[in-house]
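Long-time lurker. I teach an intro course on protein structure, and each term I like to show students one example going from raw sequence to a predicted 3D structure in token notation. This year I'd like something fresh instead of my usual example. Would anyone be willing to generate the tokens for the chain below so I can use it in lecture? Attribution to the forum is fine with me.
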Amino acid sequence: MIIDNLSLSIKKGEKIAFVGESGSGKSTLVKILLGLLKYNKGEVCLGNTELSDICLNHLYDKVSYISQELVILDEATSAMDNLTEENVMKAVMQKLKEKTVIAIAHRLNTIAGFDKIILFRDGKIIGQGTFEELMRTDAYFMELYNANVQ
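-- Reply from a regular --
Happy to contribute to a lecture. Here you go:
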């Protein structure tokens, strides 16, 4: 997946969800943020430091799945039924209330309380806002949500 002309800023402590169809660029962006994929154009900064200037071991000291600074959940609950997933997400989010969280989600009801939802399509951000804003104003988000609840 090629990510094209992407500009995104995540504040410390924000809860962000990446949403979109398979192949839309969500996981690619996460892999870039983790240093697992290299990028050849543009810049990715962690604070004021360019990601390519950060030793990956130092980066991984700050990134974890639950217990450290920057938490990234890549469809972590996808194998669970809806009720179990909802309970797990509530518990995880309670534990991470002071942390910055990036979650990739297909079940959109689990991210309804996130600060910002970033909507991906074909390697581009095509929309962003709160769950309520996107449900009110974005036909693609509503389409994803409706396909998800059926």
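Some talking points for your students: The chain has five helices and eight strands. The chain has a mean pLDDT of 83.
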